[in-house]
Amino acid sequence: MADHQEASITLPSEPVSVPAARRHTFRVLTEWGLTADDGLADAVRLIVSELATNAVQHTLGQSPTFTVELRLEREELLRLGVTDSHPRLPRRLPVAVQQDNGRGMVIIRKLAEERGGRLHVTPTADGGKTVWIDLPCGGSARS
What we know:
34% helix, 5-stranded antiparallel β-sheet
């Protein structure tokens, strides 16, 4: 297997794009041999789903598209990122607001931490941002 593999998809910032992002992610993980029963594929699909939902709901129509990027580095690290062109960074909402929504980032952080991963946000050249999740995959990928 190559030391580095990448896949990405750009979708319209519409609710119907969230399941498309999940399906794309699962296809890529399957191609890379990362759909074993260790829970990685399910965690990644949920993370992508939450990040894509955020890109659709919280960009307030200011990001016409979002991009899902997947990178597998040396069969050891899976990086996934969701990029949109809205400048507002994700933030933790007050508990009272979280009763109705706003738990997505909490879920994402928890899933990443449970798998030994981490979350970070980087700005993009066009003023948007990418929310990255780095997850160790322990060399479980096959060629």
